[in-house]
Amino acid sequence: IYEVKADEIIQVQKHPMDYSKEAEIGCDKISMNSKDGVYKYTFQNAALNSLQKQLKIGSFIIKPLLGEKAFADKAHFQKDRFDVALRGIALKNIDMNNLLDKKIFASELLINNTSAKIYRDLSKPQSGKNKIGNYPQQILKKLDIPVNISHAVLSHAFIEYKEKETMSDSTGIISFAGTTITISNITNLASAIEKNNATTVSFKTKALGTIPVKGEFKFFLNGNGGN
């Protein structure tokens, strides 16, 4: 913490960012397993700087602790297995006082490199669970932490989806390379949703590495249908 200036210590306790020129918190590594013991989550080289109003994370890894077959057998029903690596993460123009109040308000989220591999075994029965309530915008709305990020850009992304078929007992794979994903209006704030009720996801990619594809999704933030 640099250049702390206040007449009373209570001023610093209540509003530390207002009475110090700069504060920085750094962490080399945080690693933890999911409650069900299926995944390991690892953050590396994280640094939060109040003067720059920026959080940088070298990498965030979601690593499955079970192989594809073992994962499907443990789940007993159809369930996506994720193997994800995000590198070069930066959250910019953070509202530092709101962050201390456990609110994430920022102008942009940048991720320089993304790898996401997803696997599903269709030979397992379906869970029968209703997907309504578990769509991305609904999960965001359920968070206890208020979030308002103007836009995010994921560049140099590789996405692979694998399915084990029932009849052929073989695995089909489709991949998307050289992908750029832009997301706008990432929020669960009621006041922000009143102004703009949709999160828009635009993408450009190459299916199977050769076929150009571009498109857009809109996730509506109001209502309970997950539209």
Write up what this structure looks like.
With 227 residues, the chain is mostly beta strands. Helix content is 14%, strand content 54%. It contains five helices and eleven strands. It has helices at residues 9-14, 68-75, 96-100, 136-142, 190-195, and strands spanning 2-4, 20-22, 24-33, 39-49, 54-64, 81-92, 104-121, 147-164, 171-187, 198-207, 211-220. The chain has a nine-stranded mixed beta sheet with strand order 3-4-5-6-7-8-9-10-11. A two-stranded antiparallel ribbon has the order 1-2. Strand 8 (147-164) and strand 9 (171-187) form a beta hairpin. The longest helix has 8 residues, at 68-75. It is globular, with a radius of gyration of 21 Å. The termini are far apart. 14% of the residues are buried. The mean pLDDT is 92.
Brief rundown of the structure:
This protein is mainly β and 227 residues long. The protein contains five helices and eleven strands. The strands form two sheets. It has a nine-stranded mixed beta sheet.
Question: Secondary-structure map with pairings?
Answer:
Blueprint: E1 2-4, H1 9-14, E2 20-22, E3 24-33, E4 39-49, E5 54-64, H2 68-75, E6 81-92, H3 96-100, E7 104-121, H4 136-142, E8 147-164, E9 171-187, H5 190-195, E10 198-207, E11 211-220
Parallel strand pairs: 7-8
Antiparallel strand pairs: 1-2, 3-4, 4-5, 5-6, 6-7, 8-9, 9-10, 10-11
Strand order of the largest sheet: 3-4-5-6-7-8-9-10-11
Largest sheet: 9 strands, mixed
Order of helices and strands: EHEEEEHEHEHEEHEE
How many individual helices? 5
- Give the strand tally: 11
Low-confidence stretches: none
By secondary-structure content and strand pairing, the structural class works out as: mainly beta
Proportion in helices? 10-25%
Distance from N terminus to C terminus (CA atoms, Å) equals 46 Å
The 3D shape can be described as globular
Mean pLDDT: 92
Rg of Cα set: 21 Å
Fraction in beta strands: over 45%
